[in-house]
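Ticket 4471: requesting a sanity check on a complex prediction with calcium ion. Repro inputs:
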Amino acid sequence: MRILLVEDEFDMAAALTTALIRHDIVVDHAPTLEIAQEATRSALYDAVLLDRKLPDGDGLSLIPILRRERAGLPVIVLSALGSPEHRVAGLDNGADDYLAKPFSTDELLARLRAVMRRPPQIGENAVNVARLRFDLNERQAEVEGEPLDLPRRELLALEILVRRAGRTVPRSALEEAVYGYDDEIASNSLDAHISRLRRKLSRAGVEIHAIRGLGYLLRAAA
Ligand code: CA
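Returned structure tokens:
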């Protein structure tokens, strides 16, 4: 398990890190909101432990940003602001749990286990276009409730088109999403994936429009 600890008090961060490492948890430490955001863009965390009073703002402001990147990411707020009003604000802002300082390591570990046990919230992070539904957590496409079984590259292309539905996705961005660094890209293979996707999506009432010289755009068919 790898977690991100967002905490500006270095003594607190060091003590927590030592305790968590003892339980085979990998801990990355971010002392500011800005560093926390950079960290979540480059690593995939199983959970975030979030202080509130940080040098560049209230930790709660980070929660919607984290959720936009990954809907099901568990967040536990660890804060000296422990009144019922503060806890309510934390939970209403999307925290999965709220632990008032001081707390015991055992309690923190138990709460971490609890939030990790919760199933990801279904439907929380899905995009619907006409009769197509794309679950961004499960990375699964459905047409009228029926799963669409797509080969990997078609799924990757659809994922990025759906994330930016209604906007033009540049060809270069699609190629980056669909192919690895080491893949040889035949000049027309992206277009071949797109035309197969088009056929499979026609019954969903979705079209993938080619924007000449720019890229592709996914939208509900007129
Ligand atoms: Ca603090």
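Notes from triage: Residues 105-117 form the longest helix (13 residues). Leaving this open until the requester confirms.
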